[in-house]
What does this fold into?
Amino acid sequence: MSGEAYAKTSASKPLTGKCVMVTRERSQARELVEQIEALGGEAFAFPLLKMIPPLDYKQLDEAIRTLDTYDWLIFTSVNGVRFFCERMDGLGVAVQDYAGRVAAVGPKTAAALEERGLLVEVIPSDFVAEGLLTSLQTALLAGQRVLLPRADIARKLLPEKLRKMGMDVTEVDVYQTVIDADMAPQAAERLQRGEIDAILFTSSSTVSHFVQAMSSWITPTWLDRVHIACIGPITAQTAQKLGLQVNVVAQEYTIDGLLDALLKNLGGESHDKQI
It folds into this structure.
């Protein structure tokens, strides 16, 4: 392809000339960075989360050893699946031998489970705890035992609602989420220079960690021209409570939905049409 033709092709992409800050955890950021670059944009990776094993495995190990006593195994994140299965491997327990029923908050979490040989029966169309509860209502029976392998900072709505429905719920921390502020000086410098066009937040924890990490660097005016994009209403509510002006909220609570919403806000076309 000639240089002129390449320039024309590049210029036709919807994020050409835009720089988008990605705040996902380091191991999860690559897919989103690649999608932004495929749309012609520059991605600035500012990972704000580190996910580490729990300090104490006692409760998790007990749940794994008695897994066959649970009627339901419910996952609310891909990371929950990864850390849970890694601990099962470490204990020499085969997750695919679990004979109970499995639910996942969304298709990517379900895919991670299916890669491990588990059949996922319930996936809500709304990829949040509220949607999962709605989808589970007709499948659950009062008195059934439910295991929720989750992050230490996970929302309490799901277990609380399940208990109100008569479920016997066990929550276990399979990983901890801690702040990663190593890139804060570089992020602050780019924001100060006006080089960031949008910031993508994919969870409430990324928002709170962003505000915490940048508290000694950033001034409110640095964000005046920056589009704040949130993966869903819960993340948006957290951002607003912490003083951020939210410009974009995805209608479909996925990475693809977030990118589509950002493109519409920036005047681009749906990224499904571009890739």
Remarks:
- DSSP finds eleven helices and ten strands in the chain.
